[in-house]
Amino acid sequence: MIPRVTGDTALAAAWIVAVIATLSVLFIGEVLGQMPCLLCWYQRAFMFPLPIVLGLGLWWRDARVGRYGVALSLCGGALALWHMGLYVGVIPEPVQPCTATGPSCTDTNQLILGVPIPLLSLVAFTLTASLSALSLKDPHP
């Protein structure tokens, strides 16, 4: 029998994913010194508020905070999907925001354990959106 996931559990899992993603990109940029490209900056604008918003929702036991997690994650996920399209070459090269003189997510040094950063971003946004939506199915008491 599959255990039932409560809204609190789903929201806590979304918060954990958002915290790990936020700390990871801060580590990549601040410790490893890898400058993010333009699309990475835009994705960060949607990821950075998630730990705060979801964390406060958990703290205050706000049954509806998951909707903000969904909204932020869908926007960031759309950017990550576009970025992944650039990375794999589905979207034509001329629209790629990474320049030859600036940082580029297509470089081999932009892989984490062999996985491209845009894909990791897409996975993080997909998880936070899904878990935030799942938290809305079971409102807090």
Automatic annotation (TrEMBL):
One of its GO terms (cellular component) is membrane. One of its GO terms (biological process) is protein folding. It is a multi-pass membrane protein. Its main location: membrane. One of its GO terms (molecular function) is protein-disulfide reductase activity. It comes from the Bacteria. Pfam families: DsbB (PF02600). Keywords: Chaperone, Disulfide bond, Electron transport, Membrane, Oxidoreductase, Redox-active center, Transmembrane, Transmembrane helix, Transport. The chain crosses the membrane at residues 12-29, 41-60, 72-91, 111-136. Coiled coil: none annotated. It is found in: Membrane. Belongs to the DsbB family. BdbC subfamily. This is Disulfide bond formation protein DsbB. The lineage of its organism: Bacteria, Pseudomonadati, Pseudomonadota, Alphaproteobacteria, Rhodospirillales.
